[in-house]
Amino acid sequence: MKSTTAIIFSALTIGVHAQITGKSETKNIEFNSQIQLVEKDLPPLLNAEFMAFIDDNKNDRIDAMEHGLIRLKISNTGRGNARNIDISVKNTASGISGLTYSTPSRIPVIRSGESQTIEITIDSKFELTDGTANFVIDFKEPSGFQPEPITVQVATKAFIAPSLVVNDHLVYSESGTIEKAKNLKLTVLVQNTGQGVAQDVRANFTLPQNVIPLGNELFKFSEILPGESKAIDFEFIVNRNFTNQQVNIGFAMNEKYGKFGINQTFPIQLDTKSASGSAVTIASKASDANVNIQITSLTAEVDKNIPVSDVTHSNRFALIIGNEDYTSKQPGLSTESNVAFAVNDARIFKEYVQKTMGVPEQNIAILTDATAGQMKQEIVRYTKIIENLKGKGEFVFYYAGHGLPDEATKTPYIMPTDVSSSNLTEAIDLLDLYKKIATANPAKATFYLDACFSGGGRDAGLVAARAAKIKPKTEEITGNLVIFAATNEEQTALPYAEKRHGMFTYHVLKAFQDNKGALTYEQLKAFLDEKMNVTSLTINKKEQNPSVLIGSSIKSSWGSWNIK
């Protein structure tokens, strides 16, 4: 019989022993060769971790028209490699519209001990609604060792619209006249009165034929915050071929979305006076709470909403003078010798004289940057008018500009723009002016003097280098005269730069406006005494006390006189 051989392998040994059983004997045999075992794949173990939420404006919220992302990290802490990991994203919040988000691609492999970062991008549209997005991020891995789902909740905010508006505009020239062949500047004050930020803002001007720009026609702003305003200065010149009296300048301003801009035309009349302008910028950071927006302007509040009287005084006359530009007619002077805002003072005071005091327009003369000849001519003319009314005429005299005392006689002078300190005989003797008007026998004569006569004023006098001021001479005032003056005898008349007026003129106009002109001279004096010096100390860090001079014949009655 044929013998049978049995081979038995031990699975736990590398050196293998075999027992062979035959007919007559049994032998133990050892095999020296090695046998390798095939090990099965070990499992992975995946964990997911939230890393960050990042949005464009970094307020940790998804705002309309914004881009953001959720960043996660997936780590493999198991002994085996993870393959073909799928990721799903779903927003389970109801009522949230206008939101899109990405689904990350399949991850081919994450090896044992390694990790991988993934990002889910989020984009919002105009239609986004207020609420909270609930992003559920789930994972699948073939062996079943995927991470637990992660839920990320992010607030959403509907679009907050900006609103760009033109608050004010002014036209300016160095000479003060708006005419052909002169460099002109149009200042446009734009404000964002909405609660949203206006982004990528562009403004441009369009001009008719024969009107030529002198600089930029396109202006850019990266953003205009809620409540913030921007003053845009556009320079141009009108050539002599332009045939109309009105220049129509187009203005367009658009923002990022092209929905909240401006299209406007500014009609500019040639051969008219205009004041210069500047802007106060109101800036605030955007927030969910509404921004308290104050409407900005190139002009003070007293320049608008001027009270109108229902009474007209045909026997009331006014001479108004604002001397600002002294350097044009006196080239040796520095620009510091000019009187800031004097022309604007005169222009607005004229509006109050006509509208609030009821003086007919034909009874008013206004001079700006006047020469000695012009001032003297008008003073003579109005003196004769008052004389001819034989005690029934009323006279209002307003002056903003430089005053100067004679060093020898200390006589105070009103200074025309073409008269220097070395030739005071050509200036207007203030004491002599009082006497001429008193002699003309007015029923009432009121002087408003926004000037000082000590050698300084409105930041610098005509003799700015003078170290000591001079106390001007005073005399008793006769006749039916009341003089409201900007300072006492030794102080300086100062500007109120923010309001673009003299400190004195602003407070006089403020008193008129607040009371709609219905106040007495005594009440005006009380208002000035209470308000003006406090404002001057606050704004200019200097005292400025108004003063009142009263004619000897009316000391007991002047206080009851009415402004209108």
Can you give a write-up of this model?
With 564 residues, the chain is mostly beta strands. The chain folds into four domains: 1-38, no CATH class; 46-157, Immunoglobulins (Immunoglobulin-like), CATH 2.60.40.10; 164-298, Immunoglobulins (Immunoglobulin-like, Sandwich), CATH 2.60.40.10; 313-560, Rossmann fold. The chain contains five helices and 32 strands. The protein has a six-stranded mixed beta sheet with strand order 23-22-24-28-29-32, sandwiched between helices. The protein has a five-stranded mixed beta sheet with strand order 4-11-10-6-8, with no helix packed on it. Strands 3-5-9-7 form a four-stranded antiparallel beta sheet, with no helix packed on it. It is elongated. The N and C termini lie far apart (151 Å).
The biggest beta sheet is recorded as: 6 strands, mixed
> Strands across the major sheet, in which order?
23-22-24-28-29-32
The number of strands is 32
What is the overall pLDDT average?
85
Give the overall shape: elongated
- Number of helical elements: 5
Q: What proportion of the residues form beta strands (DSSP E)? A: 25-35%
Output the CATH topology of the largest domain.
Rossmann fold
Structural class: mainly beta
Output the radius of gyration. Answer: 43 Å
| Unreliably modeled segments | 1-39, 272-286, 463-469
> What count of structural domains?
4
CATH class of the largest domain: Alpha Beta
What's this model, at a glance?
By secondary structure, the protein is mainly β. It has four domains: 1-38, no CATH class; 46-157, Immunoglobulins (Immunoglobulin-like, Sandwich); 164-298, Immunoglobulins (Immunoglobulin-like, Sandwich), CATH 2.60.40.10; 313-560, Rossmann fold (3-Layer(aba) Sandwich), CATH 3.40.50. It has helices at residues 342-355, 372-388, 430-439, 503-514, 521-539, and strands at 16-21, 26-31, 46-55, 62-63, 67-76, 82-91, 99-101, 107-110, 115-124, 131-140, 150-157, 164-172, 177-178, 184-192, 198-206, 211-213, 218-224, 229-238, 246-254, 262-269, 272-273, 316-322, 364-368, 394-400, 403-405, 412-414, 428-429, 444-450, 481-485, 495-496, 501-502, 547-550.
